[in-house]
Amino acid sequence: MLLQTKFFAPAINPKAIERPRLLSQVARSSGRKLTMVIAAAGYGKTTLLSQWRHESESPFTWLALDESDNEPRRFWLYVIGAFQKIDSALGAEASKLLNQAEFEHFEAAITSLVNDLSQYQVDKPPIVFVMDDFHHISDFDIMRHFVYLVDYLPPNVHIALTSRTEPVLPLSRWRVKNFITEIY
Questions:
Q1: How many CB atoms lie within 10 A of CB 90?
Q2: Are 136 and 6 in contact (CB under 8 A)?
Q3: 76: Cβ–Cβ under 8 A, 6 or more apart, which residues?
């Protein structure tokens, strides 16, 4: 069972400082696959993405990560659950696969999710998937499969993540391919 409050985006704080330069930098990243906002605790990473969410016309889905999500099956069920907040059909087959007790072929489930996403409203603004507090994720298999997801992510999906530390991902390769926007 998934904890539904992990999918709630934070409310806009009317007292939050407006940061138009950073907001425009995040908004310009929508043609890329991934936006990373990396800073220490309390620097406004979540606030920035929440403000972007309220200014953008793109459909947003949100996932607040924590220490317990550093387990592959749980992580991917939450990722799929986040996309299912947009449309319950997204990742339905992938979710069935992951819910099988002996299933360990995460790449097959991720492939199924990517295939569903590639068919979803390609003529509309891209889906933005925010993964808040990605610094809680360090499992090697999760990272390896996350790379697979980003590498094959269709152009109608954009991932934005916040982290207190730079994640162990192939950032150099993604920079060369113009896949990422980095905000430090």
A1: 23
A2: no
A3: 94, 98, 106, 109, 110, 142, 145
pLDDT digits (tens, 9 = 90+) for 21-72: 887 888 877 689 999 999 999 998 999 998 988 888 889 999 999 999 999 9
Q: pTM to 2 decimals?
A: 0.92
Backbone torsions φ then ψ of 42, nearest 5 degrees: 85, 5
pLDDT tens sequence across 92-122 = 999 999 988 777 789 999 999 999 999 997 7
